[in-house]
Amino acid sequence: MHPLDNVIWKALTTRQVEFAECCDEARRFMPEVTALGGFREPTAESYASLAKLVGARGTIGVFLDDAYQARAGWEFIAGAPLLRMVCENGAAPAASRLDSDSELVELGDADSPEMMELTALTKPGPFSKRTHHLGTYLGVRHHGELVAMAGERMKVPGWTEVSAVCTRPGHTGHGYARILMMEVMRRIRSRGETPFLHVREDNVRAIEIYQGLGFSQLLRLHFAVLRNVPV
After folding, report:
1. How much is the pTM?
2. Contact present, 147 and 167 (Cβ < 8 Å)
């Protein structure tokens, strides 16, 4: 098995157990942290445990090895094939610089409303008001406005995920994503860990950026947002 197999379950049973809500064979992150959950194995018992966690009409995002197949008691809301990419070579590309009107800042609780607004606008993936509690989140402010960010989400032994990479429309083309990712990755590597990430398979531009930073594809998986609809 690869250390990133069943990564949501593994994160919630190892390095991020303090963020877990549990029920038998399923776990999820606290909803105010992020809308992701997982199970030990994708069995009927595990889905039943997940249903208890989310409650009637509750929704959850899961990672699956294969495309979601219809299952009694669950409604498929949305989903997409994902690529899991890893950066194991440890070689950093040449650093870029921000222009004089921009600054790189560490983000915290006071910045949460702006982070929520930015992710709602750019839709990099599930993001909640306490997602930034999962790790370091960095942003670029241009004339004081938060125009880009990136940070750390899931963590398992030896690995940390780079996530929420996004740039406000009208501010692309300045290399903000690359600058932010390089700094997030530098901090991950300084702890002796390896960066990984998830990206939609159809997000060609983002994949090109990640490859330029040294990421390579590990595997293809499927993201599914499901709603519990008791029968």
Report:
1. 0.94
2. yes
